[in-house]
Amino acid sequence: MPTRRDLLILAVLVALAALIPLVTGMRYIVTQATLFFIWAIVVTQWNLVLGVGGIFSLAQMALFAVGAYSTAMLGYYFELPMLLAMPIAALVTVLVSTLVGAACLRLKGPYVALLTLAVAQMLYLLITNDTACFTNPPSGCMPFFGGVRGFTRFGDLGFRELLGGKWYVAHFYVGLFLLALAVLFSLAIIRGPMGLAFQALRDNPGCAMSRGVSKFKYQLWLFALSAFFTGLAGSFYAINFAAIGPTVFSISLLLFLMSMIVVGGIGTIWGPLLGALILMLTDEAMREFGDWRDIGLGLILAGFVIFLPRGLMGLPVARLPRLSGRRRAD
């Protein structure tokens, strides 16, 4: 069965990834792998919204930021433990995504993309234009949303005190655990009965709605639930780096993550993970080339859009019609 096969693949990948800190003692590799886990969580959930649900949303990084800022503010203002702040921040992200979805999902196609992007920019301007002093710590005036300086010193998971200089190894395994949960959720959606409804709404909404499938209800459900793991990824990002600021709203980061989905394969289970791995390795390899780095990534994306629109995971599927055609001809 496909589900059994996918679960086996996930178990093997998690087991292999768990060996990374044991095989290599390099802190840089382990921390970059942790960042990969965070971005992989975001793109797997974005792929559910964009590739499975057919919702052209550009609000994913805004939801990511909601999770990150909620965690920082809960720790900074209320001194909540991070283990408690993380699920609360994820639930706040679900609430925000429900409100955004209720406003956006009655629209179609590019109008959804434009409105969700406008929501993201509105949140960015709300944060960066917040200059009024809310508190006055020794470091100086602190706006309620942190302003352009963002938040620091809002708490951690306790691994820095417990493990000392090896705290990043514990964060690695936390990130791996969260990614495994996010992929399991994606599998449950794509391989389950709900996945058929989402795909029907994506491919033939008129036929699906004539069969009693409510487009608005199903898409809002997917948009809201996928935001839970997106907010959780944002929360862990803030904790991992012990800081969060408005740079998470950058258009370049949003396009970089969207490229991961395109390169790997939109609507597939493993495509976003493959795309995230390839683009992170490519980005790392081109780090020394300065401005040419962005140009190179842009050329890679353009090449995939033109020559491999189904992404790397679409290669075997693309060959099937040709093979079957030859067999019929023979």
Q: How are the strands of the largest sheet arranged?
A: 1-2
Q: How many strands?
A: 2
CATH topological fold name: ABC transporter involved in vitamin B12 uptake, BtuC
Please give the largest β-sheet: 2 strands, antiparallel
Q: What's the mean pLDDT score?
A: 89
Low-pLDDT windows of residues: 317-330
Using only CA atoms, what is the Rg?
Answer: 21 Å
Distance between the termini: 31 Å
Number of DSSP helices?
15
**Secondary structure: helix percent:** over 70%
Strand content: under 5%
Oligomer type = single chain
N-to-C series of helices and strands? HHHHHHEHHHHHEHHHH
CATH class: Mainly Alpha
| CATH structural architecture | Orthogonal Bundle
| Domains (count) | 1
